[in-house]
Specification:
- The chain is an alpha+beta fold.
- It contains 2 helices and 6 strands.
- The protein folds into 2 domains: about 45 residues; about 90 residues, Sandwich (Immunoglobulin-like).
- The longest helix has 29 residues.
- It comes from Leucobacter chromiiresistens.
- Pfam families: DUF4307.
């Protein structure tokens, strides 16, 4: 019984019991805030990516020594303004032609595009480097 009183006396004197409950409460609040911040980050950071743009190379045809016609397919949500970067490479994989193509807005989800790329040296390969949704310029 005396041991219990001594332990109680030490707890009262140094406040160990209160401190433990305070620390536990603080840990739960901090954990809840971190979870809420993580969920908010996922919801508002573009994680959902509603306007994804997919693209696939179909091929290219040389048009003499100074240009080629690149053909590719783009798939995105209908009525979405899209731009693509097309690149032509030589045998050393150096860029010899480059073009940004703004695609016409269509109601189709997928459409095929052919564009002419001017090259500085003979090209042995051509591909779509990337496609992206064009942001609304009227909002600027």
């Amino acid at each position: 019984m005396q041991h219990s009183q001594t332990a109680q006396s030490l707890e009262d004197r140094y406040g160990t019991r209160r401190r433990a409950s305070f620390d536990r409460r603080f840990a739960w609040i901090a954990a809840a805030l971190l979870v809420a911040a993580g969920i908010a980050f996922l919801l508002f950071s573009g994680w959902q990516q509603p306007n994804r743009v997919a693209f696939q190379d179909i091929g290219f045809t040389k048009q003499g020594e100074t240009s080629l016609d690149m053909k590719f397919q783009v798939t995105t949500e209908p009525n979405t303004p899209v731009a693509c970067a097309v690149e032509a490479l030589n045998t050393s994989k150096a860029t010899v032609g480059w073009k940004i193509v703004e695609l016409p807005v269509t109601e189709q989800q997928s459409h095929t595009v052919t564009t002419r790329v001017v090259v500085t040296n003979p090209a042995t390969a051509a591909s779509v480097r990337d496609c992206w949704v064009i942001e609304d310029r009227a909002a600027d």
